[in-house]
Amino acid sequence: MIDHAVVFKSLVPDELKILRAIENGMKSHEWVAVEDIAAYTGLSEKEVEYRLSNLTNLDLAERFSGHYVGYQLKYNGYDILAISAFVRRDTIHSLGGLIGVGKESVVIAAMGNGDVHLAVKFHREGRLAFKQVKRKREHLLGLPKVSWLYASALAAKREFKALKDLYPAVSVPQPIDCNRHAIVMGVAEGHELSRVKLVEPEWYLDFIVDQLAQAYRMGYVHGDFSEYNVVVSESGVTIIDWPQAVATSSKAADELLARDVNNILTYFSRKYRIKRNPKEVLEKIKSGA
């Protein structure tokens, strides 16, 4: 894992230009040739090769040597391009340390206008076997050829839209900005549900069900809900990680909602011995009661 702040500050403008050239070339090529990078940037091939050596050493790009020499972005390089866009837009002013690493994301701290604490979430769709990811993601179905770059950007776009539609009626992180595979959002204050011992678990379970019901009324099913997607504090809960959310009109909505409900009820039953009837909870969510 790179230190995003240190790496970003170390780069010169020509190196950012080269990263953008590789990104552009990857729209049509798996590996982007040095001469194509030079043509895009207006730099000499010698200068490009010198800068690429630094970028590969920083783990931002990867080199391929076969019948030609080519390069492709690594996730770290894609992260840097998104950070560059957020800085240009004045969305963030500084970067902090690592907040967390999920199965398909990395989250780091940042500061925004007025020294507001923010989080930057980088999607990592390619962290799992990519063919498996494609089969399971509604937003990738029907697309014949999808790179990890494009898949991660699609996931971020979907999550950002869901957050914009739901916030603040549903307790989700405040969406601030989105670029490529990255989202800037408000910080979810508290601790992951799976890591705490609740004093009033019944109250928190009711709060969670109410949030799922409100999201359903607004046309959304989370689609990947569990104790790992809930941040709890003394004042309530924040539901995070919405890239797999589906519309309530989707064919998969009922099945996914049932799974979401079963996951959270199973958790509270196992840890707190709280028994709820899944069918009754589902009915409550769908009826809006």
UniProtKB/TrEMBL annotation:
Cofactors, names only: Mg(2+)
Listed GO biological process terms: maturation of SSU-rRNA
Record EC number: 2.7.11.1
Matches recorded under Pfam families: RIO1, Rio2_N
Keywords (A to Z) from UniProt: ATP-binding, Kinase, Magnesium, Metal-binding, Nucleotide-binding, Serine/threonine-protein kinase, Transferase
Reaction(s) catalysed by this chain's protein: L-threonyl-[protein] + ATP = O-phospho-L-threonyl-[protein] + ADP + H(+); L-seryl-[protein] + ATP = O-phospho-L-seryl-[protein] + ADP + H(+)
Keyword check for Cell inner membrane: no
Family: Belongs to the protein kinase superfamily. RIO-type Ser/Thr kinase family.
A GO molecular-function descriptor: protein serine/threonine kinase activity
Stretch forming the signal peptide: none
Keyword Magnesium recorded: yes
GO CC term, one of those recorded: cytosol
Domain RIO kinase residue range list: 64-287
Protein name: non-specific serine/threonine protein kinase
PANTHER family for this protein: SER/THR-PROTEIN KINASE RIO2, SERINE_THREONINE-PROTEIN KINASE RIO2
